[in-house]
Amino acid sequence: MxxxxxxxxxxxxxxxxxxxxxxxxxFFRWKIYHFERVPVDGGVILAxxxxxxxxxxxxxxxxxxxxxxxxxxxxxxxxxxGWLIRQWNSVPVDRDGGGAAGLKAILNRLKxxxxxxxxxxxxxxxxxxxxxARSGIGLAVIKxxxxxxxxxxxxxxxxxxxxxxxxxxxxREMAVKYAxxxxxxxxxxxxxxxxxxxxxxxxxxxxxxxxxKIAALEPCWDDGRKD
Length: 227
Fold this sequence. Notes:
By secondary structure, the chain is an alpha/beta fold. It has a single domain (about 10-215), classed as Glycerol-3-phosphate (1)-acyltransferase (3-Layer(aba) Sandwich), CATH 3.40.1130. The protein has helices spanning about 10-30, 55-60, 80-85, 100-110, 135-145, 155-160, 185-190, 195-215, and strands spanning about 30-35, 45-50, 70, 90-95, 115-120, 150-155, 175-180. Strands 1-7-6-2-5 form a 5-stranded mixed β-sheet. A two-stranded parallel ribbon has the order 3-4. Helix 5 (about 135-145) packs across helix 8 (about 195-215). The termini are close together.
């Protein structure tokens, strides 16, 4: 497993970063493809499919920089766990991951040069198949000025789907693969002057384009490369 640098990480984040990487490597023989496509500095959105509770740290710890994660607002009230997820740059959102406060927090992190993981599908898949995209991520993309890197996770549904009580350790392999960044320059320009109805269409169009790019990423199980 390649080990990119971990410069500029807070101590607690760095410790967790190493712990999660060790966890995925030992229990799921994880593979990483094209992490270099994620900018090492500046604001960026990582847009990934979502099949398991294992997905957020899988996408985040595969890259050599701190990542911001979305977490339900209620989790921040837990005495120890709430403190820990704050150290891991978690952004409080409501149950559905939307709301004005959550969007404002997301945009603030991006404006400050942070990277954040979002799931266009909005929730974990029930059957392992990719789901239709929701427009929420399109709103965040248009309101921000940062690149978006699509990513696809393979194997996490088989390892720990929403139907399982415990993960299937050691018998399932997982991988994450990143696509080239997307900038949505033309749609962002159009969004500045279009009607409200067209604006809603743009949000969904962005989300759909991201899901198309995610779907186009194919697994590389047999080529032996770990980019």
